[in-house]
Every structure is written in structure tokens, then in C-alpha cells.
Amino acid sequence: MTAAFEVFGQQGYRQTTMRLICAQARLADRYFYEHFGSTHDCYVAVHTQACLEAAQVVEMAIRSLPGDLLLRARGGLTAFFEHIRSDPRRARILILDSSASGLNAQQRIDEQYAFVIELLKSRFRQRYPNAYNKPNMEYVVLGCMGMIINTAMRWIERDFSDPIETVVDHTHYAWMGLDSWMTQLNAAAG
Length: 190
Prior knowledge:
190 residues; Tetracycline Repressor, domain 2; mainly alpha
């Protein structure tokens, strides 16, 4: 997995081969097939591990902050963007190559970001109990995730040239708008 992370992170999904991974790991080809059926299967395992690590970083940041949703959202966003900026290999695997891998958007969301989606749904249910079922929460959460992923993609493509505060501010504005909208719905339904 370490060798695969290195090769996928440096070469990208389309350029990575089983032989490159085995060369990096200094293992014979047969060992690769004892663990993975294909290079794609290996990528999915590396991507899944990278997603779990990112989710843990975000969760730790959120749990370390007071209970306010907007404060926690900003802390989680900052932790996520710092996490991908800290290792360009991670940024490539998590963001840039995930669509090139052939996983469709719904598969990536369902398989890779399920934990984050459930965490968000739980937080929204607590904060807006009267309005939780008014909008389609799946669309709300998917919209939030899509915004974060697309913002990250643009930031990575620009070689992280914008200050992290700018990226966090611009994604956080959407959370503030969402909070305002949900608060209004919650008050009207309450």
C-alpha cells in the first residue's frame, strides 16, 4: 500500500502500472496479485485509505472545537485543505485522479465519503430538528461535498497558489448560507 500510494501519488492513476508499484515495493509481480486483482483495485484501496485518513483528520478538528456548527465547519474545512496541501501525492489521489479512476460520482460519494456524509446528516439533524426533512438532505450534503471537492480541485490545479484562508473563506460562505436557509426552515416548521 505504501508503494502504491507513492506511485499513484507521483505518476497518477493513468500512468501507474502494476510493474511500477512492484518495482517501488521491490516485490515480484506475483505478490501484487495476491492482494489485488488489478491496478484499479489497488487504486481503490489506496484511495479508500486516503479518504479514511482525511476523514479522521477532519473529525479530530471538528471534535476539538466547541459545538457551534459553523465554527466546526470552518475548522473541518481548514483541516481538510491543510491535509491535502501538506502532501501533493495525497491531493492527487484524493481529488485529481478520483474521477479518472472510472468511479462515477455516486460510487465515490457512497464508497469513499460515506462517513463524512453520515456525520453531516447527524449534525444537521441535531441543529435543525424541525426542518431536517424539509429539503432533501441527500442533495444538501452532496452539494456541500461537491463544492468542497471542486474547490479543492481548482486549488490543486493552481498549485495551491491561493492562501488557504481564501479557499476556506469561499467554501465557508456556502456553509453560512446553508445555515441561514436551514435556520429559517427550522423556525418556520417549529
